[in-house]
Amino acid sequence: MSVLACSQCGELKHTPRSSELKTDVTKRINRAIGQLNGIKTMIENDRYCGDVLTQLAAVESAVKAISRVVMRDHLETCVVERVQAGDTEVIEEVMGLFKKFM
């Protein structure tokens, strides 16, 4: 189970995730970490700024892709469950999340 902090109430939320999702997201994060380490080395080795910026754009794209995967899972699981339980306040949460990623 993953543990998330509720930004409004300070309590922890638990979100069970499928092993497939965990594996996919973990691989993607590890790849992004590898890219960031490569960029760090590029900076240390005084590599050309354009090359560094290209790699930074690739990392940004990778992180956005991870966000989309997690957002989709959130919508398909947590949000659906809460709406089905009659909790429509989750819509405001989702709108806030969309604003962060637009």
From TrEMBL:
Gene Ontology molecular functions: DNA binding; metal ion binding
Keywords: Copper
One GO process term, biological-process aspect: negative regulation of DNA-templated transcription
Source organism, top-level taxon: Bacteria
Family in the record: Belongs to the CsoR family.
Protein name per the record: Metal-sensing transcriptional repressor
